[in-house]
Please model this.
Amino acid sequence: MLELYHWEPNANSGKPIITLKEKGVEFTSRYTDLLNFDQHKPEYLKINPNGTIPTLVHDGYMLAESSQMGEYIDAVFPGPPLRPAEPVERWRMRWWTKFFDIFFGPSLSMIGWSIFVGPMVRQKDPEELRQAIERIPLAERRVAWTEAIYNKFSEEELAESLRRVIHGIEVFEKGLANRPWIAGSSYSLADINAFCMVYALPAMQGEHCNEQKTPRILDWLRRVYARPAILESFKLGRTPLAERALDVIRQIGAT
Model:
């Protein structure tokens, strides 16, 4: 039995969703509403004691960490391979995955929480929010959630995040100069992981990601959006965050 506990089909939850869709693997979708703090409720903590999303449960085994989850899915299930066979391309796949997970993603996420997600969460009852934060099992996650929900990011932190995002866009554009896909000649987990972070980049950072400044990124986005697994994955979304993908498709002319 294969169950995936996930939120919206972007960022961390998007990685295993798209990977499973690309492989053609049937799974049971367990939508876990991050904005309702479902991941910190007792029934979920029985599955994943750390209260993080996503969680993959396969034949009784619990797997967390979305990027590593993709490698597990590709190794265990049949379907098109998503890890390059060529050693240097597999190394490149992992290098770029780390780049998006550690450098690009967190900075883009801080900006996204400040502008989009934080205001959505703050519509909830203040006491309900306080209790939800207290239930978070990991102390560092309680701090992170408090900062994100109440927009406690300093101007310096937001400015540094923007600097890193702009630099990351430049690095990404250069990285696509001599190859069709991020790792090399074939579509891979690196493309999936990157897409989950930057799928709305032209809308969020249009000043820095556009046809004039980043034509390779725009071309890459069009080709990723054209994959059937991508649109199938976004059908699992339930919030306006997933709807933004349709706006980007129209904006960049993807089909």
User: Anything to note?
Assistant: The first strand starts at residue 2 and ends at 6.
